[in-house]
Amino acid sequence: MSKIDEVRSAMVAAMKAGDKERKAALSYLLSSLKNKAIDKRADLTEEEESQVILKEIKQLKETLETTPADRTDLIEECQKRLSVIEEYAPKMMSDDEIRAVVNEVLSELGIDAPTAKDKGKIMKELMPRVKGKADGKAVNAIVASLMQ
What we know:
- This protein is mainly alpha-helical.
- The protein contains seven helices and no strands.
């Protein structure tokens, strides 16, 4: 079952239950997924669906960060929407799993003690492996912590 079908059935269930906020969040996500499929002019792959969901989560988090503190109505709405959309996000890698991939990349590149000069090579090799599975900021922090 694709994410579009999954989100659509959850949206119908929310409508039947009378949960307007959940229905609105799912409708928002469904429209984003459908728009991406329309732009592509084909069905989305699982990875593309995950990218759309992660993009929506990132946008909501940015909205939360930039919203003034006195706009509690917007903050609440974003938080509720975020909690609903995160249910459909792919499982993210833990720090330990990211470290394991980083160490694997280091051994493949033959780097024992990474320096700041090596960071570009490491990230170039590492990011395609963890894309959509790990937060880029977390990956960057872990690689930076290994630097000499």
